[in-house]
Each structure stands twice: as structure tokens, then as C-alpha cells.
Amino acid sequence: MTARRGRTAAARAGQYLALLGYLLFLLLPFLWLLSTAFKPPRELGSIDPTWIPHEPTLANFRATFDEQPLLRSAANSLAAAAGAAVLAVVVATPMAYVLARFRTRMARAATGWVVVSQAFPLVLVIIPLFLLLKAVHLVDSLGGLTLVYLVWSLPFALWMLTGYVRAVPAELEEAAAVDGAGRVRTLVSVTAPLLMPGIVATALFAFITAWNEFFFALVLLKSPEKQTMPVVLTHFLGAEGVADLGPLAAAALLATLPGLVLFAVIQRRITGGMLAGAVKH
Amino acid sequence: MTLATAPRRSARRPAGAGPRRDRGVWFLVLPALIPILVLSVGPLLYGVSLAFTDAQSGRTEPTRWVGLLNFGDLLEDTLFWESFRIGLVWAVGVTVPQFFLALGLALLLNEKLRLRWPARALAIVPWAMPEVVVGIMWRLVYHPDAGVLNETLRGFGLGEGRDWLSGLATALPAVIVVGVWAGLPQTTVPLLAGLQNVPRELHEAAAMDGAGAWRRFRTVTWPALRPVALAITALNFIWNFNSFALVFVLTDGGPGGRTRLPMLFAYEEAFRYGQFGYAAAMGLAMVAVIAVLLAVYLAGRLRAGEDDR
Hints:
heterodimer; A: about 280 residues; mainly alpha; 12 helices; B: about 300 residues; 13 helices; about 70% helix; globular
């Protein structure tokens, strides 16, 4: 009995050790980024780097804005990401409703497309998109990028929203129908309010995805004043990989904040939706 | 026609039955379908057709159909084969450790441990970060002078440290570590979900019968987890094989092409040298590899679906 308890205690200790190791692996790079962002140039150049800056400074954050048009690029990112997020839920919600409530061939084809579209190398999509957008003068335009982000976020938006619609009992809609409400009225007055939290979570997720996106923005936006934040961040790296480390870290940190904050807000919902998807599909 | 006739999802229609008679819903699909067709399905088909042309950027003469010429050139392009090899090494090198780490972590986070909730919340951090930032962050970690890795190694007396991302031998392993780090959340979360679906009673019953931890995992946990595990591994492999931003920021394919993933190569061909047709052919060759994986994934899904019934 005691031997068994001893073994359980050892196993517990092992588990905590593993958890600690994982958290270190996860957090140390991030803490290093944080530390670097607050270091004065003298400490950055030091051959004996420290975790906690001796003389923490905000100078790097000021310098980022001098070195690159960070504010403008943040505004660009915000515009493209917010536009794509709003458009994505507006067009995806009705379709998700159909996917969840009706078994149609079209629905099945759409689900198939959702899976397949995730598998294609982006180069096969970006070249034709580039030519297409060029033909309608939407290359090097935030509007064009927003449209690309809209389509890019649709698979996941559809996936999440379909799950949320399924969570709304169809009986509620039937009850409203029995009471004489038409389809559209039922959708608007019964289903939509119950879906609202899911719609918001989906929109925020689409926003984060677009805010973080790099490849499309790199290819489609050429004018410096139109580039998004991830693209502008790479300018800090310089041609030969020689970088001003402090401002680079500060800018990287700033670019991460919106995503981290929003993710903290919707974390439970995202994992919930993912979980439902992963298990059901 | 009213919603009262809408089938509930529990009411499965017999196989072979046509779409529902309720045709009043098609207009609800259009707002999403139109952008999908115009900006996704269409370009994809166009992209495939470009692989059989000599399309170049900024050329005035019309694009010509060249049949399989691009693919012939690909076969003789040793740089392309090299990048393909690197892509496979990278995809396997990231996907496999990622899976085992994520499985261990999911099992851990499924236990009743203190710190479980903060750990679960933190587990998602890499997911919320732009890939560009992840790349920049790890460049700071790997930095030859100011990086924490070399500093730690020096602290343990393990030599002078090196320039990990510029070393011919160390660059690929160094970027693979970053790939594993960046992709852990999206592997862990579905596995954790799968674990939460394993009935606790089964575990307890097996424990009563004297089954040890390993046996319980093999006979109770793994069978329930397998469909999710298979799906997530196939998707991760595809996703990793296609990845771009992380390595673009870390090494831009260097040193000497040692980390030039297929997507980086295709990007250079298309947007640095303007070879649209050739780059599209590369993309199509990548699809061939991925198609095999996707078949495995779909087969797994199909089997998972049958298990449901």
C-alpha cells in the first residue's frame, strides 16, 4: 500500500516536472523577447546578456516608430483585418445555417472544399489571384487584400459557425414557426440572438488570423505606405539580417498585443468550437 | 414552406436520397458562395492551368500553352529536388515531435493538476502570435552574441556558442525547433478535446481490473483518440510542408539554400524572377505529395464517421 502511494507521489512529481519543462519551453522565448524590448543599447550589445534589464527603458518603443512607419502599418492591418472579419461573418452565417440544418449536396461540396482548400500550397493560389487582382486594379490595394482575407478566413468561419448553429436547438425554431413566424423572421428573432456570442468569437478569430497574416500581404502590397504590420516588421531585419535588436523586439511585441488580448477574450470559445469540430467531424 | 419541415440533424437521410425538397434556402448560400467561387475555386483552377503555360510577369507577348515543358524542366532542376527533400525533412521533423509533445502535453493537461488552467490558457500563446513575430523572437533567442541560447550554453561552459541560423549544419535543425514550438497549440487542443471524450468509467473499470497506465492508454485512450490523432497529423504535415513565413523570417532559405522550403523556392521563382508558369508547376508538384496525405486523412475521417454509427 505504501509502496503504491510512493509510486503515485513519484508519478505526480514527474507530471509536475514535465509541466514545468513544457512551460519553460513555451515561455522562455517569449520572456526573452520581452526582456530584449526593454533593454538599452548598451545591454543589448553586451556579451553577457541578462534576463532582467539592469536599466529598463522605453526608448526602443519610441525608436520603432522613428525607424519604420509602424503606426500607419498598424492602421492598414486594422482596416484589412476588421473589414475581412466583418464581411466573413456576414456572408458565412447564412451559409453556416444551411450547412447545419439542411443536408444538401451543395453543403457537402462546401465541406469538402473547406478541407481541400486548406491543403493547397499558397503559391498555386497567389499567382492567379495576383493576376486577377491586377486585372481589376486591386493589386497594391488594401481593398484587394481585404477580399483575399475574407475568402481565406471563410473555411474556418464556416466550420466554427456551423458548430454554433448546431448548438441552437432546432426545436426553438420549430416553435417559432408553429407560432406563425416566417423563416426570415424566425432566423432574425430566434436564431440570430442565440448565435451572437458565436458570431463575435468567429469574427474575432478571423480578425486575429488576418492581423497576423504575412504571405498575401507580402506579395500583394508593394507601396510602403500600404503595407501591413507583419510586412513592415520584416523591414527591421535589414538586408543582411543585421538588425537593431531593441526596436525590432519592441515592434514585434506591439504587433503581438492585439492578437494576444483578443485570444485571451475568446480562448474558451475557440477551444470549445475547435473541440466540437475535432470530435464531430 | 416553414422551418417546421427542416430535418433535425439526428434524422439522417437514407443514402442516395436527393437534396431536400426545400429549395427556399439557396439564396442564403450565395453571399459566401460567390466570393468562394471568384476568389478561391476560380483562381485555384486558373493556377493549375498556369502550370502548363510559359506565363511570366510583366511580359508583353501573350502567354503560350507549353504542355508539360515546365514539368520536364522541374525534373532536371536539382535545386528544386533539393528544396523538395528539405521540405520533406522539415515537414517530418516538425510534425512527428510536435505530435508526441502535444500528446504528452494533452495527457498532462487532462490530469487533475494544480496550474492546469493557467497552463491550458498559456498553451495557446504561440497560436495568437504572428508567424513573423515568432520568427523574429527566435532570431533573438538564436542570436550569436545577444541571444539567450548561446548565453546559457556559455553559462554551462559548453563552448563559445555559434551562429545557429547561419551554420550549414545547424540551420535546418534550428528552424525545425521553431516549427515545433509554433505548431504545438493547434496539435494539443484537438488531442485534449479527444481525451475529454474518453469515458472516465472505462478508465476506472480498466484500473479495477488491474490494468497499468500504459495498458489503459493502449486499450482505452488510444482507440478513442486515434481518429483525431490521424487527422491532426495529416493536416499538420500538409500545413508544415506548405509553410513559408516562419522560415522566410528566420533564414530566408539560407545558408546556401539549406532551409529553402519548396514554398520559398516557388515564391522566389514567381515574385523575384517572375516565372509564373514554372512556379505554378512547382505548386502542382507539391500538391502531388499532399494529395497522398490528404487521401490518408480522408480515409481516417471516413472511418471515424463509421465508428460514430
